[in-house]
Predict the structure.
Amino acid sequence: MSICPGRFVHSLSIQDLRGDPTQQTVLLIPPGGMKLRKAGEVSVDVDEQKAKPIALVPIGQMNESVLTVIGRGLREAFGRAYVIPAPLFHPDWAHDWHRGQYLADDILAQLGRLGLAAERWLAVVDVDLYTPGLNFVFGQAQMGGPAAVIALPRLRQGLYGLPDDEALFHQRAVKEAVHELGHTYGLGHCRNPCCVMSFSNSLRDVDRKERDFCPSCRWKLL
Ligand SMILES: [Zn+2]
Ligand SMILES: [Zn+2]
């Protein structure tokens, strides 16, 4: 059972001001292109018109539905539109054949070379990531921005021999995406176990925390 209270009131009021969170602005980046072109625009509020979007960059093939769910979660958390460029090729260039994992640092470096016209860049990969000194990472970010990455495989119930649960998988992906992007906006780890910025050493930690910032982290973000 979760020890965390329901969604924080301050987050609800921010969401209310922005209107229907299911309405989204999706801008597509043509393959290899640096300019954004608008497509499928539904609604843009004043804050989003002022701010550059967050680029959600798929590296390798993956189900589009999880990208859309993550994008909506980011829009709700940061008040930014999101863009989804065409997927990059599978990240063989980051593969460590000895460990059978992929180096998160290489993916962050590659993101930087893309020169995307976005405020922040979040790569999404469906391969297991590591960084030197740790067995694995759910994600990694550059403190203060602009690049971050999250890995999907360890967020699935199926990896642990349990029945697949898409809703839970999506929830975990949003939490990790908000957490890593929170680092790019300068937030460190939070000692409030319910805050999305609390450190996750295991899936239990991921499931325990909310997808929202605690009042203190939200205040630092503004
Ligand atoms: Zn962290
Ligand atoms: Zn916090």
